[in-house]
Design goal:
Strand content: 5-15%
Distance between the termini: 30 Å
Number of domains: 2
Strand order of the largest sheet: 2-1-3
Helix content: 40-55%
């Protein structure tokens, strides 16, 4: 399933970019941090298939509009609501949107600890308020450890 999705995503990305670019050696992509691990994996396959180089600019969601105003990108990877806003503003090439990945949100508890009930917004709020501590990540950085060099 993952391989089929990746193949479709790479093919779609290649089609979209090839229809909006002259033959290029560099493809400039603006992305939010939360999707960069998946996007870079897809880009690696794209680079192998097309021999183009993909260069990423990773920004937190609140800096995307500023970055788009200052620079030109060949592709932008954003959340659906943010993409809707840019679509409505006419900032995107019509019919060029494609779903590439999903970003999940989860709850983790220490082994043996009580599992909170987060089945409704009210129960999630109660679990957050009752928690002794909370941890969250910076959306501008990937949620994986760097591999040792």
């Amino acid at each position: 399933m993952h391989l089929a999705f990746r193949t479709i995503a790479v093919s779609t990305l290649a089609l979209i970019i090839s229809s909006t670019l002259a033959p290029a050696t560099e493809v400039r992509v603006l992305s939010v941090g939360s999707t960069q691990v998946a996007a870079k994996a897809i880009a690696a396959d794209f680079e192998k298939q097309t021999r183009n180089q993909v260069t990423f600019t990773i920004r937190p969601p609140f800096d995307i509009d500023k970055e788009l105003a200052e620079k030109t990108f060949d592709a932008v990877i954003l959340s659906v609501p943010a993409m809707d806003n840019h679509d409505e503003a006419g900032d995107l090439v019509p019919i060029s949107r494609v779903a590439l990945a999903r970003v999940g949100v989860g709850v983790v508890v220490k082994q043996g600890g009580p599992v909170p009930d987060v089945s409704t917004p009210e129960k999630l709020k109660a679990a957050v308020l009752a928690a002794r501590s909370l941890t969250y990540t910076d959306p501008a950085t990937p949620n994986t450890k760097p591999s040792p060099s």
